[in-house]
Every structure is written in C-alpha cells, then in structure tokens.
Amino acid sequence: MTITDNREETAEPPLQKGVFVRVGGFAYRRKWVAVILWVVVLFGVYGVATAVGDTYKDDMSLPGTEAQAAADLLADHGAERAGDTIDIVLHDEGGLAQVQQRVDPMLAEVAKLPNVGGVQSVYENPNAISEDGTIGYATVQLEVPSVDMPVEDTESILDAAQEIEGEGLQVELGGEAVRALAEGETGVGEMVGLVAALVILVLMFGTFIAAGLPIVIALFAVGSTVGVIILASHLFTIASWTPPVMFLVGLGVGIDYALLIFARYRTELVKGVEPERATITAMDSAGRSVFFAGCTVLLALLGLTALGLGSIQGMALSVALTVLMTMIASLTLLPALLSIFGKRFARQFLARAEKRKAKGKSHDGERWRKLATAVQKRPLAALLTAAVLLGALAFPALSIRLGFNDAGNDPSDSTSRQAYDLLSDGFGPGFNGPLLVVTDGGDGSAEEAATAAAQTLGETEGVAATAPPMPTPDGEAATVLVYPVTSPQDEETTELVGTLRDDVLPGLTADNGAEYLVGGGTAASEDYAGKLADRMPLFMIIVVGLAIILLMAVFRSILIPLKAAFLNLLSIGAALGVMKLVFQDGRFGFEGGPIEAYVPVMIFAIVFGLSMDYEIFLISRMHEEWVNSKDGDPSRAVREGLAHTGSVITAAGSIMIVIFAAFILSPTRMLQQSGLAFAVAIFVDAVIIRCMIVPAAMELMGKRAWWLPAPLAKILPKVELEKH
Predict the structure, then answer these.
(1) Hey, is 435 helix, strand or coil?
(2) N or C: which end of the chain has fewer CB within 10 A?
(3) pTM for the full predicted model
C-alpha cells in the first residue's frame, strides 16, 4: 500500500468564494432582515397551527402480519370497534353484593355521559365478579375509538364513578382511554433540560447573552418545525408521540450546532479578529462541519422510511425536518444575531482572555493536548480498555425483549394502574391482556368453529380461561377471548402466542376447515417486533452504507469512515444495553417490562446520526491540522485536533446529555427510555470514544488514516470541510 501525502491538493480557495461565506456574510450584513423573517416564520406558522389544531393518528397497522389480518377481518364483518371500552373496577372487602344500591345509580349516571354508548352492569354478568365476590367490573361501551376519546369526557366518567367511593368501597377506571389521564405533560423535563443547558453555556462563555444564543436558535428552529408538523398532521399520518421526540432531538441538536459555530467564532475574536471576519471564518469552517454533520443525521433518519411502518415513517420525516430547520437556523439566524451582539462579545471575550492570561491560565486546550499525548503513548492499551468497557455495557442489549407498555407500567398512584392491579388480583394476571382469536368460515357456522376453538384452547397449557364465542354483527365470523395464565408482558405469554399459531390452531383448521387468526395487543406486539427484526438488516445497510460513503468523500479516507461506523454501533449498543438493564429488568425504581417496540430502531437512527456529528467535528479539525502542517506529522495533527475541539465537544455533549436525561422525568415511558438511551449514547460518544478511542485509533493508523484507494478517489466527489 502506498501512502500518498495529499495535503497540497486540498489547498483552499480564498475565503470569499465559499457558499457558506456568502450565506453567513449576507445574514451578517442584513441582520434585521434575517431576524424578522425568522420571527415571521415562527409566529406565523405556529399561530396558524394553533388555530387549526392537530389531527395526530397513532397508526400501528402492520400489513402482512397475522394480528393485522385479524383486525382487518373484524372490520370486514362490521366489528372494527370491538374492545373500545372502559372498565369501572370495584373493590370492597365486604363483598360487592352489599354495595349494589350505591353502584346501580352510579352506572345509570355514567350511561348518560358524552361518548358513552351503554353500560353493562357488574351484576348482569356473572363472570364480571371474582370468585370471592370482592372485585368486579362494569363495562362502559364507548361511541368512539379509545384514541379519539376526549380526555375531559374520560375525566367525567372517572368523577361520576368515584363519587360513591368510601366506607370500604374502592372505584378505579381501566382501559386505553383512561391511560391518557396518567400521561400528563413533558414540560418539566423540557424546562429542566433548558435550565441545565443554560448553566453549562454560562460557565463556558461567562455571559448570559452569549449563553442564550444557542438556546434561542434551537427554540426558533424547533418551534417553527412543530407548527409545520401540526399542519402536516391533517394530510399525513403522524403519531401523537412525535412532537416530544422532535423537541427532544431538535433542542439538543439545535444547541449543539449553534454552540459549535459560536465556539469557533469566539476563538477568532480572542485572536483579535474583527467580528464580521470572525463570523465569516466560523461559518466557513464550523458551519461546513455543521452542514455535513446534519446531512449524516438526515440520512440516518430518512433510512427509517425503509422499514415501511406508518408511525415510524411519520416520526422520521418530522424529526428530519427538525434537524434540517436547526441547520438552516444555525447558518442564517445565528450570523444575524452575531452581527447584533458582535462588538459586545468582542469586548467581553477579549477581556476574559486577558484575565485568564494574567492568572496564567492556558486558553489553547493544553489539558486536551496532554490527554491526547497520554493516549498516544499507550494507544493499544487505551483502545482495549475502552472497547472492553463498551462491550460490557452493550452485552445486555443482546437479550432485549420488544413489546408495548400497558397500564401495568403506569404510575402506581394512577387510576389505570390501580384498576390493572385489582383485575389481576381478582381474575388472574392474564386478564388485562387477553388474546383475541378470530374465526372465519369452516364446514359449519363460524360460531360453531369458534366454540370448538374455545373448548380446545381452554385445555391448552398456559391458558387460564376462555370467554364464550361472540359472533360479529353479520354472523359470518366470531371471536374468542383467550386469557393467559401470565401477564401481557411476560415472556411466557409471548411464547403462548407462538404455540397457538404454530401448533394448536392449525390442528383445528385441519379438522373443520375454518380459518383462525390470533390478534389482540399482545399478539400485535410480537408481530411488530418480528416485522422490525426482518427489516432491520436493510435499514442498517442503508444508513451505515450512506454514512460511510459521505465520510469517504469528506475525509478522502477509507479507514476513518469504517472506524466511525464501528464505533457508532458500539455506542448504540451501550445505550441499548443500559436501557435494557433499567427498563426491562426494572432497576433504579422503574417498572420492569419490555422495551417499546419502535424505540430501539428510533434510537439507532438518531444516535447513529448524532454520533457522526462529533466524528465530523473532531476529525475535520484533525484533517485541517494535517493539511496545514509543514512536517506532515499525523500524531501532531491528532493532538492539535483534540486540543482545539475537546472542550467544545465535551460542552456540546454535556448539553445534549442533560437535555436528554431530563426526559427521564417525563411520565411517558417511551420518552423515559429514549431520553436515557440518548444520554448514555452521547456520554459514551463524547467522552469515551472521541477522547480515548479516536486518538488511540488515529495514532495506530498514522498516515494510513488519510489513505483512499485510487479507484475510489476518482469516483467520489471532493468535499472540503475546513477552509481559512
């Protein structure tokens, strides 16, 4: 292999010719035009969105799966709203018979409330009271699907039901519509994250105005995008959990990108460069890195569309638009704000630099230079130590179990959780997650075939009981509710689904010719996880492959992109491993249960993109030092690259970590899982990988790090990141 010194061929054109220079210069000189345009966009879009409102849809359909086929069959036979109910759960140690005079008037009152189609009394159904007579449930039939049930109408049912509480009688509400009462808002986590980010920025820059600029950029970008997504929800399928994810990612990325440009701007000011020139230089160097880093995030997010899952596609496109808007805001709004405050920043930063100099404090990243030197002395030891640590963190991810949370994961003081626990105590753990077996056709009537299924299923190991068959409105199909012995989230329940589909029901089909389909929430969770597993290889090939090609074009190297992809996969594995330990195993006070089915794939796309951000920021500065060095020393380029970017990457990573970690305070389990995984991934990436593994790996590779085979060099376009 021939190592070619290609430093001369990347010689830079004059600063004034770059597109980033032109964009930054225009925004700097026309500062009020840029600011007013952004204000108009933010308040205009969000104002219209607020007036119109949203129509989010939680589309969990899975074409080609058995659970979806069961749901479609019910819809064909007029039973598409089967199961849209609320349970009024009653508990009295003295027995429910003695409180019937209080319960009946309450149920009659509930039947008159909005969106209530009818109420089946606990005393009308002998199966609705536990064997000891202390726990029972009345069924409230809704006139709308659970996802469309207004929260205020659900609260009215809760208030009416709990009016009779007291004297030993406990009344709770269960059902999907009721769970919305426990979800609350994510505002606490967002506010904690913003305050923590502001504190870090103040410590870094020493002034509130300077610290506030990255946050302002993020809020403008995220606020504008949320307004667009609210409007887009009227035309496209966008899940209700998409906006919090947009805020989670957009806030972190927005502050991150603005910070990196601003940090380079401050460096230029401290050198004595005029504010306008400092802005243009920052845009032409850090601005380029931000642009290409953002492109890697966009590629990773758009790769999610290859999964072909409606709600995930909507989320991916929404978050991709958020990242795009943060890039645009960083490249247009930030230069305008720097123009407004530039002279003040120049005075403040120069004065602070003089004070540090007078105290003998270094301003050029001496600590990071020493860290790089220490790592370079024992590169193999540093590499192996970090790899073992990351491997240990990633190992638990191999046993992740996917599914969907249910009321058993709700806060212990919520009415949905207490109803869940009461029903488990009274009727068994599997009562809260019955399997739905749909019967169609056969030698006789569908109801006869369903009756035969109910008898066989009732004798199957792992089944606690079955309900009598219920024909569909047209009488051409029927359903059987199957209650497992174990709870909906137990692995044994998942295995039972496979047993029914693969062993038990095919035998019945052979006997009577009827078609049996296993549906319901537990079965749908298994199908969802299976569908994701089948499509993950294609998704990973697309995301990783495109990122490698982009980095090869940027750095004119083949080893650096391969290294970056491998290390990013390690950081993702570590994040998933920690998430599994905390949420699946139930540690640190969290309820144990399966990981939300779509969270790992979402984490993969977003974390892979964000990890590439730091790779580009760090390696681009090392590349700059390599290109501009007179002695061609790759070790020196590594040291100087880390010295100039270590503090910025650490600060940016710290901000992302506190913002993501703050979402652990959210009452929504999906956001808790995502926030923890993102925080762990960024910590691993910014601290362990960028500050230890990358310097060690670059030292071991030496000049080979900048080698690109001649055939690839001819095919790939040349992309220059750093210019001066």
Answers:
(1) strand
(2) N
(3) 0.79
